[in-house]
Amino acid sequence: MIQEYLYEMIALIVLLTSIVIYFLTVKFQQEEMQASFNETNTIKVQDKTEILKQDSTTKENLVETEDEPYILSGEEEGSFGNIPHNPFNEKEVQARVKKTHRQKIDVPKHGKITKKHFSEFNGVKILVAEDNVINQKVIRGLLEGSGIEVTMADDGQIALDILEQNDDFNLVLMDAHMPRVDGFEATRRIRANPKYEHIVIVALSGDTAVDDIKKMRKAGMAEHLEKPLRMNDFYDILYAYTKEVTETGDFVEVIMTKELNGDQGLSVCGGEDEFYKDILHDFLQNYASSSKELTDLLQKDDLAGADEMLLDFIGITANIGADNIRLIALELKEAIKDTQEKSYSIILEEYKQHLEILLYDIREYIK
């Protein structure tokens, strides 16, 4: 009995000893971790001090001006590596927009606008930053013979290059989405330069959501014109920021077809039937085989290519008044994002059917 009790006591002592050793080990490890943490923080503080010293040295390369506290000078200007650069915060951008050009004036009531009324803006100079050639042609054709000087830029970078050589423009029509430098970045750069204060920047985009328009405003665009470009809206912008004009007459209405709203398309073209037919002819040349091209792109899993093609198609069909297929194209653009189910095949078939009818309607109209 005593021997059994002795064994239990020995076992209890061994257990208590193990517990004490365990807690001592844990405490030692915690002390080591704390020491390592303190050493790392010391290194980080030293690194931060070095960074601040380097920043102080870099700041010597900055030029201070009255309007902009610091603008990078020399070769640093425009070269920011992987660091995103925005020369102004939102308040400064809006202040620069308000400072830009003469005050906007109220537009009096007027009738519907036709192409001929734009001749009243004779001498106004407009730079159009737009990468789609058909949209360029629509704008150029609309203003042809008006006396308004139009200069085209295929993307934001070209627009910036043009302004660098010649800043004698009243207005910039700025497409929001373009290759190389998009409309947002181009606008920020223009608004950052005091020598462009006299230029009004107007967004030209199919994006009509409130958040999209707010983004354009924040970038420095004073106004927003929706694609397709509507005569009355464009007229009002020119009136508000250039000079007063007289009241106007009415549009000419044209026949409606199953897939083609000729009245809408004609209004985009300033009421000129021949010009509208010319645009429709360009559509036939560029998009008659679009269903096959989209099918090929999707079979190759080139979703980016298909998305870009649909984006252009949506803008063009809005210009010519083909709303049915435009809505289908919008739906297809969303559907191709589903790479798992590939549910776009049904919508693509619907696209093909409506395109065939649209092509027939166009050919009947322009023949």
Characterization of the model:
The structure is a single chain. About 17% of the residues have low confidence. Helix 9 packs across helix 13 and helix 12 runs antiparallel to helix 13. This protein is α/β, with parallel strands linked by helices and 367 residues long. Strands 4-3-5-6-7 form a 5-stranded parallel β-sheet, with helices on both faces. It has a two-stranded antiparallel ribbon with strand order 1-2. The protein folds into 3 domains: 60 residues; 146 residues, Rossmann fold (3-Layer(aba) Sandwich); 105 residues. It is 56% helix and 8% strand.
Structure summary:
It contains 13 helices and seven strands.
- CATH fold description of the largest domain: Rossmann fold
Taken together, the total number of domains comes to: 3
Radius of gyration: 32 Å
Give a quick account of the main beta sheet: strands, pairing sense, barrel closure.
5 strands, parallel
Show the helix and strand layout.
Blueprint: H1 2-59, E1 62-63, E2 71-72, H2 90-99, E3 125-129, H3 133-143, E4 149-153, H4 156-165, E5 171-175, H5 183-191, E6 200-205, H6 210-219, E7 223-226, H7 231-241, H8 262-268, H9 273-287, H10 290-299, H11 303-320, H12 323-335, H13 344-366
Task: Jot down its keywords.
5-stranded parallel beta sheet; 8% strand; 367 residues; two-stranded antiparallel ribbon; single chain; Rossmann fold
